[in-house]
Request: fold
Amino acid sequence: MMKTIKKPEKIALCRECKGTGKVSRLGFSKVCPNCGGSGRVLVSCVMELDIRPYVE
Reply:
């Protein structure tokens, strides 16, 4: 049996910049490309589950 589960969008802390909105590379700081400088991102997911009986 295949089952699809969709989780609604939610606001989460950006993992790339850890919520600061800026990333540092080699001593230079720039706007985080992942969140655009906000420090937050929208996260959602779709999962497909394949559920089968266990047979030894």
User: Anything to note?
Assistant: The beta strands are 2-13, 22-25, 28-31, 40-50. The longest strand covers residues 2-13.
